[in-house]
Amino acid sequence: MRVKKIIEENQGTIVDVRTQGEFMGGNVVGSINIPLQEIQQRIDELKDLKQPLVLCCASGNRSGQATQFLSQMGMECYNGGSWMDVNYYKSQTV
């Protein structure tokens, strides 16, 4: 699985697209929080991040929407699904 390899090898940036409140309730160490509704306005910030981007949320739905949008903008990104799955992969690197 490509996403697992990206996370395990620290190749890109993990972006959590949940709300700030959800993010504060638990998140992947080293991830950044850019809520889905802010993706369009913060596109320049996203372009400056180390790619590929691995997007995550609660279930994979919002991160899937963000992945589709950012891919159309020419960015290399992947839907990591649930932040807890991404967190599990990340914990394997420690």
Question: What's the quick description here?
Answer:
The chain is an alpha/beta fold and 94 residues long. It has helices at residues 2-8, 20-24, 43-47, 61-72, 83-91, and strands at residues 13-16, 32-33, 53-57, 77-82. Strands 2-1-3-4 form a four-stranded parallel β-sheet, with helices on both faces.
Description:
By secondary structure, the chain is α/β, with parallel strands linked by helices. It has one domain: Oxidized Rhodanese, domain 1 (3-Layer(aba) Sandwich), CATH 3.40.250. It is 40% helix and 18% strand. The protein is built from five helices and four strands; from the N terminus they run αβαβαβαβα. The protein has a four-stranded parallel β-sheet, with helices on both faces. The chain is globular. It starts with a helix and ends with a helix.
The profile of the biggest β sheet is: 4 strands, parallel
Strand % is 15-25%
* CATH superfamily annotation: Rhodanese-like domain
Count, helices? 5
Terminal CA distance: 19 Å
Q: Outline the low-pLDDT stretches.
A: none
**Number of E strands:** 4
- Helical residues, percent: 40-55%
CATH class value: Alpha Beta
- Summed up, the domain count is 1
Oligomer class: single chain
Kindly name the structural category.
alpha/beta
For the largest beta sheet, what order do the strands appear in spatially? 2-1-3-4
Return the average pLDDT rounded to an integer: 95
Q: Which outline best applies? A: globular
What integer value in Å does the Rg equal?
Answer: 12 Å
Fold-level CATH name:
Oxidized Rhodanese, domain 1
